[in-house]
Amino acid sequence: MPVFYPPESRHAGPAPRQEPAGEFRGRVHALASHLPLQVLLYCHLCYAPCWWASCVCMLQLKFQYLPAYYQGLLVTGVVLLTVVEAVRLYLGYVGNLQEKVPELAAFWLLSFLFQLPILLFFLTDEETLILPLERAVHALYLLLLLAQILASFLALRAMTRKLTVLFHLRQLGKVQNLRHAGAMSATYGLPYYSSVLPVSPDPCR
Question: What angle is formed at CA 103 by the lines to CA 99 and CA 105, rounded to 5 degrees?
Answer without folding.
Answer: 100
